Amino acid sequence: MMGGGPYATFTIIPEDTDFSMESMRVDHSAADRSMSRILAMAIAVKSSLIERLTHVYFNYFPQLQRVLVTDNETEARAWLEQQLNEIANTGS
Questions:
Q1: b/e code 4-20 from CB counts within 10 Å (16+ = b)
Q2: Is 80 exposed, middle or buried (0-12, 13-18, 19+ CB in 10 A)?
């Protein structure tokens, strides 16, 4: 979906999102992570339950890229931009 180059993701999970525990059993970014394509991911979660579950998920499936999980969309956008600028300037 993202093509052959490296990328970052920004995800907003609304408060009323329908959630299935089955999604916690799959490493959704394994294929891209094994090729070092994902540089950073920011996730703005509007539900405290899903925010906690997201942290649990990342404990089961540790990520190699930079990750921020927050309830603040503005903070997530600023953090992601900062990460991409830093990566562009340093190469890592």
A1: eebbbbbeebeeeeeee
A2: buried
Please tell me the predicted confidence (pLDDT) of residue 2. 58
Q: Which two tokens stand for residue 17?
A: 């999102």
CA distance 10 to 8: 7
- How far is Cα 66 from Cα 42, in angstroms, rounded to an integer? 8
74: helix, strand or coil: helix
- 43, HSE (Cβ side, Cα atoms, 13 Å): 18
Which tokens hold the place of 52? 């906690």
Residues in the chain where the model's pLDDT stays below 70: 1-3, 32-34
Q: How far apart are CA 48 and CA 5, in angstroms?
A: 33
Pairing of strands 38-45, 7-13: parallel
